[in-house]
Amino acid sequence: MSAPPHRRMLPDAPSRRGWCPSLARPMPTGDGLLARVHPPLGMLSLEQARVVARGARHFGNGHLDLTARANLQIRGVSEASSAPLAGLLTEAGLGDRRADGGPQRLTLTQPRAGQDPTEVIDVPALARAIEAAALDIPGLPAKTLVVVEGRPDVTAPEADCLVTARDAGFVDVAIAAADRMHTVTDCTATEAPAVVSALLAAFARTGRRRMRDLSEAERAALLDSVAAAVGHQDRQTGPATRSALPLCAGGGTRDVSFAPATGRDESGSVQMLTVDAPFGRCTAAALDRVVSAAEAIGADAIRLSPTRGFVLLASAGVPAVAALADLATDFIVAPDDPRRSVDACTGAPGCASGSTATLLDAERLAQDFRPLAAQGLAAHVSGCAKGCARPGPADLTLIGSQGRYGIVLGGAPGDEPAIHLPIEAVLDRLGRAKTGGLAAAFAPNMAWPDDGGDGRPA
Ligand code: SF4
Questions:
Q1: How do residues 266-277 score in pLDDT, each as one tens digit?
Q2: Which residue segments constitute the domains of the chain, with CATH numbers given?
């Protein structure tokens, strides 16, 4: 079931119940504290977006991170400014929802959720109900993620729990295992919040940080919890329409994409403008310009995209090309921009753990990476082995160490580099990779005259 037109899709007024008056534990970084903002359902009203920009400008250093979970981070907050910032955000309905270290926002949905005519369930309503049902579960790890998807046959590799539409009014519920998602039951969309809540409560009792880390015995205990929750519901509301909510440990595997192409897309009665922040960073002024663009095309909410960008929805036919062009200076607006294929963390000087200027280096690398990006390859410039921007593997991973980069091909930041190079040598070799391929260009035993005299294997 699709939701009503986009003008009725503003975030709900926040409930005050359980809200903490202070911002969630600002995190120390190289450029001060980091304050996390978790917009309900990944949406900001235009006024809320203005408040976030104002908060970043007045109480931070004017820089923002956009995260892969469609949240925001205000950078450069000080001990003195964190309390007034928290007050400002809480007043705008963007304060913390729990004070026990658990997830401030549990669910992730497509930016266009509720406006996608191919959806067969009311995704925003279901996500809202799951948030409410799970808000009070004690001991839930902060990174717990429930993906709610309104279309069948999609996937979400980072999810702990995946709720996907099966057909109108019905969903499949799956949990993460080491190698894939396992469908554990199907139920009505109305029953899903209780089922997910039972799953998450059982998960919290295991003490594990991610669902994929559960042992077989722990996963079996979770299934028992679901069965108990289903039985409890049957006693309360009678049998479900669908045959008794079967448990089917081991269901099919599905891969889900959260990557709307940047630019303008128009289908049906809605057009969608998508802009991505280069390497997930933007300024308060740039966010203000997004709000201005939203006002210009009549969009009354700003949706955050897991591609680290913003999505604006407007009625079809509204002139929007100029609004998109106005954002091109600050954001990626072209689908083939090679920066979309390169991840980079804050690095130096913003992060105390970094010794290399990852953002600047990633900007340079992206230009030389264009032909490889066009082939579907991905690169990652990480300031250290922690790999904040992309914990998983990439075709080319650069790992900052003592001002140079360790090179890993087809691996993750935690893998052992085959060779260490300064950025200039990386770019030189990358230029040669256009014809010879990455493996040949970054072969450890290949001596290049411009490797800074130290292109030896690690
Ligand atoms: S990967 Fe390392 S350098 Fe980059 S942001 Fe994370 S901790 Fe900092």
A1: 777 888 999 999
A2: 6-91 (no CATH), 112-237 (3.30.413.10), 263-334 (3.30.70), 340-441 (3.30.413.10)
